Amino acid sequence: MKRLDADDPCPARDGYVMPAEWSAHARTWMCWPCRIEAWGGPDGLLRAKQALARVARAISTFEPVTLAARPHDVAEARLACAGKVEVFEAALDDSWARDSGPTFLLGPGGAKAGIQWQFNAWGNKYQPYADDARFASRVLAAAGARIYEAPLTCEGGAIHVDGAGTLITTEQCLLNPNRNPNLTQQQVEERLALFTGARKVIWLGEGFSDDETDGHVDNIACFAAPGRVIVGVPAARSHPDYEPVSEAIRRLAAARDAEGRSFEVVEIVQPERLKLDWRGRPLQASYVNFYLPNGGVVMPAFDDPNDERARGVIADCFPGRDILQVDALDIVEGGGGIHCITQQEPDGL
User: Fold this and answer.
1) Per residue in 101-127, is it b (16+ CB within 10 Å) or e — as a string?
2) Could you tell me if residue 165 is left (phi over 0), alpha (psi between -120 and 50 degrees) or otherwise beta?
3) pTM over 0.90
4) What is residue 331's three-state secondary structure?
5) If DSSP codes are grouped into helix, strand and coil, which group holds residue 303?
6) CA distance 281 to 274
7) CA 137: distance to chain centroid?
8) Percent composition of the chain: helix, strand, coil (DSSP 3-state, to 5)
9) Do residues 115 and 150 make contact, with C-beta atoms less than 8 angstroms apart?
10) For residue 101, which of 136, 138, 53 has the smallest C-alpha distance?
11) What is the pLDDT of residues 22-72, one digit of tens each?
């Protein structure tokens, strides 16, 4: 991995920061599903495409959506989305725009830039991934945004920011030997600070059952506002994530943000029914894995008794936003959720 020298260009030194997701967007970027093994076969992939199209159409009621698709998938993607999206032809290996897409930044005067993280398909879990490893740069070029190459293996779903200097992540992901084996925790924090503008990094632990992403924070916790964090709490103590989530809550309770504030932790009870995915692993169904388009919330439903309860918690956290709940089970079968298939481009110059 490239070393980071004092005179290297990086976003924070140039006045760029990663804005909060609730800031105004220019558009949402998504990717048309294409890696058949992620969903266990052709039928699973077809259901994933249908589910992603539902999410894209829902988001398009709030803001423009640009959907990246491989050239031979363009017609299918356009038809499935009923003309509600702009299609961007691109070479793709997979479909998680949050992770392989750029982390967008805003700079002086609303100038737009973005990060091309090092990407290795969640710790070399899939091959090939060369097209996804350059996807962020292609998106940034299309958006007319400056490209910053980060010397850190990271995915967008591994981090959440409050837009005011605080970032949350997990040791399980960014300190994993399959991501950044030669970097210390301090070195990872320095890179996060220099490339996102974060002044405080809060680590939420490890031991989460999400083996696919190695504990992406966007399935565990997210900011609702500076000083306010939503945490998904398993419905039963027997759930494998109950203790790791309890530890994350303890850490948040003891922490302070970049401005010295203590955190208000809003607990959202996860689905009551523990289901297994097609691999036989616990299905990573999380109500925290939602997306914030302009003026709205697009959040998952899981055909579960807790769906409506979760909707109420999210509505309380984001008053004035329209809530659209979309069946996400067929997306989650592939290892991610609604937040994982979306990537916001901020409204800049």
Assistant:
1) bbbbbbbeeeebbbbbbbbbbbbeebe
2) left
3) yes
4) helix
5) coil
6) 10
7) 17
8) 30, 25, 45
9) yes
10) 136
11) 999 999 999 999 999 999 999 999 999 999 999 999 999 999 999 999 999
Residue 247 · residue 254 · CB < 8 Å: no
Under DSSP, the state recorded for 39 is G
pLDDT digits (tens, 9 = 90+) for 142-179: 999 999 999 999 999 999 999 999 999 999 999 999 99
Place of tokens 């969903």: 39
CA nearest to 63, candidates 280, 291, 233, 288:
291
Q: Are strands 103-106 and 112-118 parallel, antiparallel or unpaired?
A: antiparallel
Report how far residue 162's alpha carbon sits from residue 229's, in angstroms, rounded to the nearest whole number.
9
| CATH 3.75.10.10 is the classification of domain 15-346 | yes
Residue at token pair 């970027």: 29
* 330 Cβ neighbours under 8 A, 6+ residues apart: 44, 47, 48, 50, 51
Closest CA to 271 of 291, 282, 285, 258: 285
Neighbouring C-beta atoms of residue 86, cutoff 10 Å: 13
* Amino acid symbol at 310: A
Which residues are annotated as catalytic? 340
Q: Are 173 and 26 in contact (CB under 8 A)?
A: no
Q: Does residue 51 contact residue 327 with C-beta atoms inside 8 Å?
A: yes
Sequence-ordered alpha helix ranges (H) in the chain: 42-60, 74-80, 97-100, 121-124, 135-143, 171-174, 185-196, 242-254, 307-317, 329-332
Both tokens of 249, joined, read 């809550």
Q: Locate the domains of the chain by residue range.
A: 15-346
DSSP symbols for 14-30: GT-BPPPTTS-EEEEEE
pLDDT beyond 60 at 1: no
User: Which residue matches tokens 């038809």?
Assistant: 79
Q: List the one residue out of 51, 48, 32 whose CA is nearest residue 40.
A: 48
Within 8 A by CB and 6+ apart from 83, the residues are none
Please report, for residues 31, 68, 246, 293, the alpha-carbon distance to residue 93 in angstroms, rounded to integers and kept in the order given. 10, 11, 35, 25
Q: Which two tokens stand for residue 322?
A: 């329209």
Which of 48, 82, 50, 47 is closest to 65 using CA atoms?
82
Burial class from Cβ neighbours inside 10 Å (0-12, 13-18, 19+) for residue 315 reads middle
